[in-house]
Amino acid sequence: MLDNRKENRYLTLKFIKNNSRILLVMEWTLLLNSTFEPLRVVTWKKAIIMVMLGKVEVLEEYERTVNGIKVSFRLPAVIRLKRFIRRPTFLIKFSRQNLYVRDKGVCQYCGTPFEHRELTYDHVIPRSKGGQTDWTNVVSCCTACNLKKGGRTPEEAGMTLIRKPKAPIWIPLMTKSLGIDDPPSSWKDYLYLNQELSS
Ligand SMILES: [Zn+2]
User: Fold this and answer.
1) Strand runs (DSSP E) across 44-118, as ranges?
2) Ligand 1 center–CA 26 separation, angstroms
3) What is the average per-residue pLDDT within 165-183?
4) Mind listing the pLDDT tens digit for each residue in 72-119?
5) Edge-to-edge strands of the sheet including 72-81?
6) Which of 76, 106, 117, 169 has the fewest CB atoms within 10 Å, measured from its CB?
7) Do β-strands 138-142 and 28-32 pair in parallel, antiparallel, or remain unpaired?
């Protein structure tokens, strides 16, 4: 079995090497756990290797076909692990940039979109009142709203948040960091499933 896998892996790598122009193709594959929960975004090359090793089943494919000498296949868009793996605890670093990405560049008080450089951040419960600096108590904020709110709670300032802050689901951040602004349409059912489950 192991030998077969090694052989398959070798053939796959050889195939990719012999078709190096394919390397220019930038397609990403969404990897799901056996439970359909999104785990990670991988390159299509990695995805193909996992398919060849029999570790995953292909759920969705892209239109794009890659032709080799002996093999041709459509690039996998969504793959699912055959065996369940314990979800790794993936903590998104709490940073100003990630905060702006989570909030989609929108001031969480007035709802206006801004360039990241125009934004600041706000402690919903002020630090002076025991508010923590974490995903659930810090939001993106424009300077006008920040000034208006000052060191008060939203209630005291008569302001309301457009949504309750929480730790971000990491897939959107991951795709964003890869430069994928809009995940492929073939991923959407699976990402949506994830959002429903975790809300
Ligand atoms: Zn604002």
Assistant:
1) 56-67, 72-81
2) 37
3) 69
4) 778 899 999 999 988 655 566 788 888 898 898 999 999 999 999 999
5) 38-43, 28-32, 72-81, 56-67
6) 117
7) unpaired
Q: Determine if the pTM surpasses 0.70.
A: no
Calculate how far, in angstroms, residue 158's C-alpha sits from the geometric centre of ligand 1: 13
Q: How far apart are CA 142 and CA 174, in angstroms?
A: 25
C-alpha 42/C-alpha 113 separation (Å) is: 30
Q: Which residues pair with 195 in a beta bridge?
A: none
In the reported structure, the alpha carbon of residue 94 is separated from the centroid of ligand 1 by a whole-number distance in angstroms of 21
CA of 120 to the centre of ligand 1 (A): 10
- Fold observed for domain 96-157: DNA Binding (I), subunit A (1.10.30)
Compute the distance from residue 97 Cα to the ligand 1 centre, in Å.
17
State the distance from the centre of ligand 1 to the C-alpha of 92, rounded, in angstroms.
Answer: 25
CA of 148 from ligand 1 middle (Å) equals 9
- What type of residue sits at position 146? N
Domain ranges within the chain, ordered by starting residue: 2-87+170-198, 96-157
End-to-end CA distance of the chain: 41
